[in-house]
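During the no-cost extension, the postdoctoral fellow (Dr. R.K.) reprocessed legacy sequence entries with the updated structure-token encoder. One reprocessed record is reproduced below for audit purposes.
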Amino acid sequence: MNPAIDFPKALYIGGEWITLAAGAMEPVINPATEELVALAPVASRSETDAAIAAAREAFDQGPWPRMSGKARAAKMQAFLDALKAREAQIKQLIQLEAGATQIAQYVQFVIPLQHAQFFVDLAGRNPITGLPVDVNPTANGTKLLGSGVTVREPVGVVAAITPYNFPFFMNVSKIFPALAAGNTVVLKPSPYTPFEALILGAVADEVGLPKGVLNIITGGKEVGEMLTSDRRIDLITFTGSDAVGSAIQAQAAPTLKRLLLELGGKSAMIVRQDANLDLAVGSGLFNFSWHAGQGCNLNTRHLVHNSIRTEYVARLGAMTRAVKVGNPADPATGMGPLIRDAQRKRTENYVEVALSEGAKLVAGGKRPAGLDKGFYYEPTLFEGVDNRSRIAQEEVFGPIGVVIGYDSDEEAIALANDSDFGLGGGIFSADVGRAFEMALQIRTGEVYLNGGSGGMSSHAPFGGIKRSGFGREYGVEGFNEYTYVKSIVFHAG
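Re-encoded structure tokens follow.
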């Protein structure tokens, strides 16, 4: 255990900390060392029902949805400032629970707070928009002057279900727009990473959020199914695998809930013959080794023009072999562990699949020597890969990248689109105009040109199509997902 962190040992429901019996506590493991981080509470059906009821009452009877947007923005700004004051503690949790390296800790802390600030600023906007004036004929032959307004109102009770790979990031990125828009929330994190959610309860207490506005419970499949099927929940926002997303859609169907699903990916990075190879190779390495490949938006299919493919593979292979794998507590570590042994075994299985399909192993493909504790696996690169093979079509969620050759822009576009997923993508080319034209033809929710803007813009909506889900996070569109539009029309004269 780490004495520097006061690990919450209770659930946060209705503005109160609910302590559970010792038998309702489960160990949380550090994936880098396999050591115990702390015991975490696990909600039962009873606590889940209480959390839903608290959120429902807070929305139907409480002050939160009836406050002005500016008043909510002021309260959420205080919440954001309190998170900033806990930076060291939260970054340590990100390392201990998720196995994030120090660079990943920075990204997983700083960027979500930038998104949060965007939503706080947006919360103070006027929710009422005027409609144009119309002149309409009446039954007696006169003309009526009519107009109206649209009003954006909160959806209601939101269940936010978050993954283990970017836990603090996703917790913040979901609760801030939901709360700022006037909704109440039940937050359920991954059982692997509960503390980065529970710590938000302490912040809610500190800043005085009204009771029931934010509720935080933990648990596994049973708790999740209660949230996705209960009629008192109005909207589900979920980030995770396409398989679980499909199950959630089925569970939510009888109650016709709104869904915001950000699911898996097998995104393609196109490297044209005129690309800056230094830039492309660096990005290529990042896109399957960063956070041990545990990112839905990582570009793990590298579509490389055959005229430069040999050089690209040689350079990327050398860089892959040079990555230092180890404990994320070490500042020199380039890649940390996978979240659990099951995910490492999944990665190992896909290496076997790739070899059986005829792919050529360029680098990695085994557990690193000398790391007997922790769920480590070498960053792994294959080339000579068929785009229809399993290793090119299925999401691994581990540190595996594949290189696929092509001969024309049209072929590259077709290969990129030949996927059940449609989340991200990238194009590297000195001809940025041509890259833009190609981006318009790629069926995906996002495309980076030459690495993008250098960060994850809070203004840019993010989400996918096909099996990558639907709905958008971030940007004005992401805020609007947590609202509905009401039209109010009237005689103007």
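The radius of gyration is 24 Å. The chain has a mean pLDDT of 95. The remaining legacy entries will be reprocessed before the final report is submitted.
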